[in-house]
Amino acid sequence: MARRKRVAIGHVGADWYTYTTPETLQKLQVMTGAAALPADLMPLVIRAPGQTHNAGAIRPGFYSGTDVFVIEISSVKRLQLRGWHLQQWCVKLALEGKLDDASAELAKTAVASNQSRDEVKRDLVAIAEALGKPVVFVPHLTIPRDDGTPFPERRMLREVIAEVCDATPSATLWDPTPLVLGAGVRTAMLDASHYTKEFDREIGEALVECVERVCRGKIELSVELSSGAIDTARPADYVIDTERTYH
Predict the structure, then answer these.
(1) What is the rounded average pLDDT of the residues 100-115?
(2) What is d(CA 84, CA 63) in angstroms, rounded to the nearest whole number?
(3) Domains of the chain by range and CATH?
């Protein structure tokens, strides 16, 4: 998306995934300085491959230059330790011995639970209110598993996100499932969670179009260009912040 110069990614310094609504709220608190993530838990929240965290970027106005937020909510499974929400992928790596020994021991003590429908709804409303700017919520794909069985939690997430977006003027639902079904699952997907490289570009273009529709009509934009993210000879039209786990 950034290469098209139509948008710039505005979350440099906070490049780690979130899967659930409580993780998203926690990240907003961490990056704006409202909460300090303990050092020993950092590998279980951030330190998966390709994910980074710059403590120097934390500030109350971290997200002030963002025009629209794109947030995927892909899971209802919580992993908690000492009141903090851990990232599923980081915990998985720790339990597989791919992180340090201390993180592996901590991961064994994480408490797993599933969010209720009401908890997801409450968090989505809180996220929209906390951001105070347009937000595009993206549910996980509602296609079957590779063995043909359904993902009931994905259907629930999609329904709750739609309900909240219908009632919240600043929130928009963007569901990639119709695009996948239109192209054909075998063409679009490597498996039930990962796009093919070719289809990933099509999904990206459709998401940019959604962002443009959300932002259209703005007269003044507060644009902060991400260093090295785009050709700065021409400013991007919009700055977006993505909390995404789809690939």
Answers:
(1) 97
(2) 22
(3) 2-243 (3.40.50)
